[in-house]
Design goal:
Layout lengths: L10 E4 L2 E4 L3 E3 H8 L3 H9 L6 E2 L5 E4 H11 L15 E12 L3 E8 L2 E8 H7 L6 E6 L14
Antiparallel strand pairs: 1-2, 3-5, 4-5, 6-7, 6-9, 7-8
Length: about 160
């Protein structure tokens, strides 16, 4: 059930039984997920900021739950420049990187940290907001459906 390298997280229900899996990430995998170099992750491990233990093959690996907690603690985004209260919790501060616009509709692309966010809106809205490449903007996402995928696993 587990693929080579990283094992799958969480629980898997198979024929009525619940099977626990330990998620572990090698240093290079943890670095990729955190958006830093392997050396940075090794410095964090050496400095005691992140715990790593030898995996079954003797390589350093970071526990998935510990890596998730560390990622949340390390996450930083620019301060939200708006002072408006909203129910939406998915707010990404970024910079406009591209605008494709015709007479009626526009596609606005933002780079929000490591994430590319694309919004479709009216051309009128782009003009009213004064959006242009380089504008500081906040992508506010309010969705009723969020799809979560796991790589390489089928029920």
């Amino acid at each position: 059930m587990a693929k080579t390298g990283t094992q799958t997280a969480g629980q898997n229900r198979r024929y009525g039984a619940i099977v626990q899996f330990m998620t572990q990430y090698r240093i290079s995998e943890a670095a990729e997920l955190l958006g830093v170099s392997d050396d940075t992750v090794r410095r964090w491990v050496d400095g005691g900021r992140l715990v790593a233990d030898a995996d079954a093959s003797g390589r350093l690996a970071v526990d998935g739950a510990a890596l998730a907690a560390f990622a949340v603690d390390q996450a930083s985004t620019p301060a939200d420049p708006s002072s408006v209260g909203r129910s939406a919790r998915n707010r990404f501060v970024g910079i406009v990187t591209a605008i494709t616009m015709d007479t009626v509709m526009a596609q606005v692309e933002l780079q929000c940290g490591p994430h590319r966010v694309v919004s479709l809106m009216s051309s009128e809205a782009v003009r009213e907001l004064g959006l242009e490449v380089g504008s500081l903007s906040v992508a506010v996402i309010k969705a009723t459906n969020v799809i979560v995928e796991t790589p390489g696993r089928m029920p």
